[in-house]
Amino acid sequence: MQRPIGIFDSGLGGLTVVRAIRRRLPAEAIVYFGDTARVPYGIKSPRTVTRFAAEACRLLARHDPMCIVAACNTASATALPALAERMDVPVLGVIEPGVAQALATCPAGPIGVIATEATVASGAYRRAIERQAPEVRVIERACPLLVPIVEEGRSPDDPIVRAVLEEYLAPLADAGVAAVVLGCTHYPLLKPAIAAVLGPDVPLVDSAEAVADGVAARLGADGCLAHTDAGAGEAVGPWQFFVSDNPDRFREVGGRFLGAPAEPVTLVPTETLSATPDPVEEAT
Amino acid sequence: MQRPIGIFDSGLGGLTVVRAIRRRLPAEAIVYFGDTARVPYGIKSPRTVTRFAAEACRLLARHDPMCIVAACNTASATALPALAERMDVPVLGVIEPGVAQALATCPAGPIGVIATEATVASGAYRRAIERQAPEVRVIERACPLLVPIVEEGRSPDDPIVRAVLEEYLAPLADAGVAAVVLGCTHYPLLKPAIAAVLGPDVPLVDSAEAVADGVAARLGADGCLAHTDAGAGEAVGPWQFFVSDNPDRFREVGGRFLGAPAEPVTLVPTETLSATPDPVEEAT
Question: What's the ipTM?
Answer without folding.
Answer: 0.88
